[in-house]
Write a structure and sequence with these properties.
318 residues; alpha/beta; Rossmann fold; 6-stranded mixed β-sheet; 4-stranded antiparallel β-sheet; 12 helices; 12 strands; disordered C terminus
Length: 318
């Protein structure tokens, strides 16, 4: 449709975080960072790496994946069944591991992780947390164990859009602290200031409404909220959806640092490349069933896609 409109002489301003689309569609690209035009590239110059360099202000360097010694099991899931969504799932999560859950739309990955956080009812579910049987039937159950969840839709499910940056950061901490101790404005402010500095959240001030921040800065505020209660397990559901490449790079760095410091992470993404880049181990789902698992050097976009596609095609024939 865009190509047809161009032929009719209609000028189009196209804004997207998807660089492959930008390169394919555009005749000219201007890259903005921190409110300023950092450079304009003509059609013959268009290249994703050049655009990324202008967006970041430096060359993007991908660090090597670090293998994790799988010694301490923090989560052991058995016999997880969700009606018509997930069948007899079993899996382990180790201390300090980034575990990817991959699959196409309808694979059951979304229902699976929501059930682990108590957001989706299961017909059956056995969970051992640090070797002891536990019940997770609600988010409160999960939070009580130190398990937090970052939803895929921040504006619908994560943010208090008309509240301040400070309140968005400290809200979960307040939920816990008010049950057993007196809080103060000074302490709230101190927590918010610490995470704003740690995550380089760009905001005019603590009391700025979070709706006025960019998507990347909003997402970093949500990360801060989860970290304020020092979780043991983080379930991250499409954590880089709709944010710029610079914020993506920062979030990747935070995730790796958290894992290196002992936080266990379950990572779900609609972008297979992102899963293969970050995760040390990946479980692949298809039509609600576990169809493959890859570790360390086996983790690749090609292996994940081949596994999911093979089972998908087999199921469609049947």
């Amino acid at each position: 449709m865009i190509e047809e409109l161009k032929k009719k002489g209609i000028t189009i301003l196209y804004v997207s975080h998807r660089l492959d689309e930008i390169v394919r569609i555009s005749d000219r690209v201007s890259v903005f960072r921190d409110g300023k035009n950092r450079g304009t590239l003509e059609k013959e110059e268009l290249d994703e790496s050049k655009i990324i360099q202008l967006m970041l202000g430096h060359v993007l360097e991908k660090s090597k994946k670090i293998s994790v010694p799988r010694k301490e099991i923090v989560l052991d899931v058995r016999n997880l069944c969700i009606h018509n969504k997930v069948m007899d799932f079993a899996g382990l999560l180790y201390r300090g591991e980034i575990l990817g859950i991959a699959g196409f739309v309808g694979s059951g990955k979304e229902e699976l992780v929501k059930s682990l956080f108590g957001l989706w009812p299961a017909e059956s579910k056995e969970i051992l947390f640090k070797g002891k049987p536990v019940t997770i039937n609600s988010p409160q159950d999960a939070l009580g164990l130190g398990i937090v969840y970052l939803p895929e839709e921040r504006k619908l499910s994560s943010l208090f859009l008309n509240m301040s940056v400070q309140k968005n950061i400290v809200s979960l901490w307040l939920f816990f602290s008010r049950s057993g101790m007196t809080t103060s404005q000074r302490r709230e402010r101190g927590i918010a200031e610490r995470y704003i500095e740690q995550f380089s959240i760009k905001t005019p001030g603590l009391q700025e409404e979070i709706i006025n921040l960019s998507g990347g800065n909003q997402q970093k505020a949500v990360f801060s909220r989860l970290l304020a209660i020092q979780p043991e397990i983080m379930i991250l559901h499409d954590p880089t959806r709709g944010i710029d490449i610079g914020s993506k790079e920062e979030i990747y760095r935070y995730i790796k640092t958290l894992a290196a410091n002992g936080t266990s992470i379950i990572f779900v993404s609609s972008e297979i490349d992102e899963i293969s880049y970050l995760c040390q181990r990946v479980i692949v789902l298809s039509r609600g069933r576990k169809c493959g698992e890859f570790s360390d050097n086996e983790v690749s976009t090609a292996n994940i896609l081949a596994c999911a596609s093979r089972i998908q095609q087999k199921n469609e024939k049947n």
